[in-house]
């Protein structure tokens, strides 16, 4: 068995610390591990084999490599940098390294490109794509699409929903988001109808002895909890069926938020719905039609409401 490198050993211990002592979500720990493994391989290729040898210049060059050679989006690079900052800060606090090489590294420009969205009419076609001709799990798939669009859920959040998280009398879900933060999300009557149908008519047929379902609402055909990758595959399959390209679960989330903002929803409400800890993250959904902004000004600004109407 090949000996594990000092860097890899520290990453392993760091991830254990995140899981046991910090209680971070599996998705966050997985992202940290993936980002730090990529950094470790890159450092090895540069001939950097010891932790004290890692300098600020290495971190800066690694970030340039992510952008130039890997062609990552600035938002993905920002996540990589966040992973490195937490890791090296942890090593520095424990005295493993004398200096934190990531402490002064500036974040790359935040992602400014507007998120992909589809129109309400296109979304309607996607919602109606699952039919009995789609297979035995069409009810599940219809409920999945309806809930993701109604509540703006991430794929991982949808897969982790349990029966006890479903509150049919309130038409809402208890959602566990990033960092194990809990929020209550209303889902509306359409999604409520389809989830009720799936639970009543389809879910029980998949249940297996031994509790392998773990109480999850949405199950695979073998009765196991639905993985995030499977959710992506479901969304992409039905998007292709109705002729939509480049559609994935996050597009449903973006579309939900964008359609709410365009419809006049308060940005703080959308922030709460999506589980954003920072309102700045939600502000990307304010890319509404400028004519609507002008109409809002005319309708709600006190000076505009009292102004005389100009004749043509």
Task: Provide structural commentary.
There is one protein chain. The chain has 312 residues and is mainly α. The protein folds into two domains: 6-93, Orthogonal Bundle (DNA polymerase, domain 1), CATH 1.10.150; 120-292, Intergrase catalytic core (hpI Integrase, Chain A, Orthogonal Bundle), CATH 1.10.443. 53% of the residues lie in helices and 4% in strands. It contains 14 helices and three strands. Strands 1-2-3 form a three-stranded antiparallel β-sheet. A hairpin with a 4-residue loop joins strand 1 and strand 2 (172-176). Helix 1 packs antiparallel against helix 2 and helix 6 (138-151) packs antiparallel against helix 8 (188-201). The longest helix has 20 residues, at 26-45. The N and C termini lie far apart (85 Å). The mean pLDDT is 85.
């Amino acid at each position: 068995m090949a000996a594990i490198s000092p860097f890899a050993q520290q990453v392993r211990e760091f991830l254990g610390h995140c899981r046991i002592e910090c209680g971070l979500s599996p998705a966050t720990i997985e992202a940290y591990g993936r980002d730090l493994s990529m950094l470790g391989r890159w450092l090895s290729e540069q001939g950097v084999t010891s932790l004290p040898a890692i300098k600020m210049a290495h971190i800066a060059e690694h970030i340039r490599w992510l952008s130039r050679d890997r062609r990552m989006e600035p938002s993905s690079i920002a996540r990589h940098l966040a992973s490195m900052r937490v890791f090296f800060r942890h090593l520095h606090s424990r005295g493993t390294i004398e200096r934190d090489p990531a402490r002064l590294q500036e974040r790359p420009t935040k992602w400014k490109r507007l998120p992909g969205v589809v129109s309400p009419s296109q979304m309607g076609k996607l919602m109606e794509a699952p039919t009995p001709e789609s297979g035995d799990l069409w009810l599940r798939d219809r409920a999945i699409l309806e809930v993701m669009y109604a509540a703006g859920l991430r794929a991982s959040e949808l897969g982790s929903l349990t029966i006890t998280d479903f509150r049919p009398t309130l038409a809402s879900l208890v959602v566990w988001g990033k960092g194990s933060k809990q929020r209550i999300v209303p889902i509306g009557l359409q999604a409520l109808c389809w989830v009720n149908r799936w639970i009543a008519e389809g879910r029980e047929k998949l249940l297996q002895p031994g509790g392998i379902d773990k109480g999850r609402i949405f199950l695979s055909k073998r009765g196991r909890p639905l993985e995030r990758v499977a959710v992506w595959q479901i969304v992409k399959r039905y998007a292709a069926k109705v002729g939509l390209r480049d559609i994935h679960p996050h597009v449903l989330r973006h579309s939900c938020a964008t359609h709410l903002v365009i419809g006049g929803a308060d940005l703080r409400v959308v922030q709460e719905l999506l589980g954003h800890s920072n309102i700045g993250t939600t502000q990307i959904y304010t890319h509404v039609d400028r004519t609507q902004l002008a109409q809002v000004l005319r309708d709600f600004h006190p000076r505009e409401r009292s102004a005389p109407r100009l004749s043509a």
